[in-house]
Specification:
Blueprint lengths: L4 H17 L3 H4 L7 E4 L9 E12 L7 E12 L5 E2 L9 E5 L3 E8 L9 E4 L19 E8 L5 E7 L5 H6 L4 E6 L1 H4 L9 E9 L8 E2 L2 E2 L6 H4 L3 H5 L14 H5 L5 E4 L2 E2 L2 E5 L2 E8 L6 E5 L5 E5 L4 E8 L2 E3 L4 E7 L8 E6 L28 E10 L29 E8 L2 E4 L13 E4 L3 E8 L14 E5 L5 E7 L4 H4 L14 E4 L3 E8 L5 E7 L2 H5 L3 E7 L1
Parallel strand pairs: 1-8, 2-6, 5-10, 11-17, 16-24, 25-28, 27-34
Antiparallel strand pairs: 2-3, 4-5, 6-8, 7-9, 9-10, 11-14, 12-13, 14-15, 17-22, 18-21, 18-23, 19-20, 19-22, 23-24, 25-26, 28-32, 29-31, 29-33, 30-32, 33-34
Bound molecules: CU-O-CU linkage (C2O) and copper (II) ion.
Length: about 550
């Protein structure tokens, strides 16, 4: 796995000049030519929906002037309802795949990324058999195809998909590979929630572009091939702090330890997004698709946010919050009622300042952000809403949403002693239960029984001896293969002050697959492993942490 801080420190300045001397993407990007199939279709599987999905470089116009090189999923419908495959409007992100619960889906995924970029698609939030789930051990090489075939068993909810290769997830997702996978079911359909133009996907990301409009990831341009000499060091991304970093190359791979923070907020792949809205109700389906940035969402006019759903389900009933915390990987389903506003009104969805990320007596954890990026917890505007026209459609907020099959804590087989998952720092790496990621079975793993109900307790330990911000960080923990309930949170007394600035923004109702755990916090989860046996992963969804090994496997035994 990747090299330690020492080698990063020594090499970082040399790497910068090397990268900038070979940074023209078009002259160096080699595409694969042959196409072999790593997983072949099953002739007995009859899909309701079949899609070809290709990950490949693409040149797009994001800002005025020079076009930007991104990596993007190109999709085409082979079979099924044309409404099942939609574009994110005017964006290189996407596509949006829309299915009904119970439908059978085939996706022919082709990796057409440059040499060195193995990839695999993870369907974040979907409950799938192990070989459909995009575990990094299934990553395919450029030129290969992986055929997914699965039935959608999830409840209604907005899931998403993104690459999941070992150590390369951060740079591939950052380059533009992210789509939405929206499931509906009869219960949701009966609610007649805002749809069509009134159901708006919002993918929140933070990005840094250089003077020639190219995406910079930890100081390196997207489309710059990995230099093989760096591969053993964990790839260029994890070791170069970058020439845009004012805080100094001497920090080596510190930014991969803290996570990437970009300078500008992008919504659906673009900066300065404005939603031109009518005087009526909208459904905003928000994904935090950032690599590491956490948001504290609030309306600029002081109205509370009304929420109808979270990661993996609708809520039982709507809830309101003055602000909502949203960490990487998490989703929110927002009921946005603009019917009382006058035409001409301007409104913003902001991210408020929070300090809960501060470690004990140290710098705020965003102190190492690259270039001019606002630090984590800084206040910023995410997007604007402009009330542009009158429409009279008046929808009522339903007071009951979903009849959720909620579990009871006392039914867990380990209710008295939850399974501990400790987050801590080892050397310069974040680890779970004291060990870095191993691809398959070498790591002593969590083993659970099919159909059992378990409590897990995520314990975000402090690291008193660590340098600077590394004493404590928020980690969004994501479990593959299951949707869980969050049943309790506790924090160490010495971190209670910072925690106060975030704690009222948790949306722990409903079913989730990603949960933010603040420094010094312990969060208990409750879940049932009732669908598939097999080897699944769970990890931090700060993608730089994930890539550096903050990931483990768990096995569901039949
Ligand atoms: Cu969205 Cu394993 O990740
Ligand atoms: Cu983390």
């Amino acid at each position: 796995r990747g090299g330690g801080i020492a080698s990063g420190l020594i090499l970082s300045s040399g790497i910068h000049s090397l990268l900038s001397s070979c940074s023209s993407p078009s002259s160096t990007t080699k595409l694969p030519e042959n196409n072999t199939v790593a997983r072949t279709p099953n002739p007995k599987f009859t899909p309701d929906l079949e899609i070809n999905l290709k990950a490949a470089p693409k040149t797009v116009q994001i800002l005025a002037g020079q076009p930007t090189q991104v990596w993007s999923y190109a999709a085409e419908l082979v079979k099924g309802d044309p409404n099942s495959l939609q574009a994110v409007p005017d964006s290189y992100l996407g596509p949006i795949i829309r299915v009904r619960q119970g439908q059978r889906v085939r996706v022919n995924f082709q990796n057409n990324l440059p040499q060195g970029q193995s990839s695999i698609v993870h369907w974040h939030g979907l409950i799938l058999p192990e070989d459909m789930d995009g575990h990094p051990r299934f990553a395919i090489q450029p030129g290969q195809t992986y055929v997914y075939e699965f039935e959608v068993v999830n409840r209604a909810g907005m899931n998403w998909f993104h690459p999941h290769p070992d150590m390369l997830t951060g740079q591939q997702a950052y380059a533009g590979l992210a789509g939405l996978f929206i499931v509906t079911d009869p219960e949701e359909a009966a609610l007649k929630l805002p749809a069509g133009a009134y159901e708006v996907p919002i993918v929140l990301q933070d990005r840094t572009l250089d003077a020639s409009n190219q995406l910079l990831y930890l100081g390196s341009k997207i489309g710059t091939p990995r230099n093989d000499g760096m591969e053993g060091m964990g790839g260029m991304g994890s070791m170069s702090q970058g020439n845009s970093n004012q805080s100094g190359g001497s920090m080596g791979n510190m930014s991969s330890m803290m996570g990437f923070l970009g300078e500008k907020i992008f919504i659906n792949g673009k900066p300065d997004f404005t939603l031109a809205a009518a005087t009526r109700v909208y459904r905003l389906r928000i994904l935090n698709g950032s690599n590491a940035r956490i948001y504290k969402l609030a309306w600029s006019n002081g109205d509370p946010l009304t929420l109808i759903g979270t990661d993996g389900s609708l809520l039982s009933q709507p809830v309101t919050r003055k602000y909502v915390m949203l960490a990487p990987g998490e989703r929110l389903d927002v009921w946005a009622d603009f019917s009382k506003l006058k035409v001409g009104t301007q409104l913003a969805l902001n991210s408020l300042a929070f300090s809960g990320a501060e470690n004990v007596g140290g710098n705020s954890m965003g102190g190492m952000s690259s270039g001019n990026a606002p630090e984590l917890g800084a206040a910023m505007t995410l997007f604007n809403v402009k009330i542009a026209r009158t429409e009279t459609e008046t929808l009522q907020l339903p007071n009951k949403l979903a009849a959720l099959p909620l579990l009871r804590p006392e039914d867990a087989t380990n209710a008295a002693q939850p399974r501990p998952v400790e987050l801590s720092l080892q050397g310069m790496k974040w680890v779970m239960n004291g060990q870095p990621f191993e691809m398959t079975t070498a790591t002593p793993q969590e083993t659970v029984k099919l159909n059992s109900i378990e409590q897990w307790e995520i314990i975000n330990k402090l690291n008193p001896g660590a340098m600077m911000d590394a004493k404590g960080m928020a980690h969004p923990i994501h479990l593959h293969g299951v949707q869980f309930q969050v049943i309790s949170r506790q924090v160490l007394p010495e971190l209670a002050a910072g925690w106060q600035t975030v704690k009222d923004g948790y949306v722990d109702e409903g079913f989730k697959d990603t949960v933010m755990v603040m420094p010094g916090e312990r969060v208990k989860l409750l879940m049932k492993f009732d669908k598939y046996s097999g080897l699944f992963t769970y990890h931090c969804h700060n993608l730089e942490h994930e890539d550096a090994g903050m990931m483990r496997n768990y096995r569901v035994n039949a």
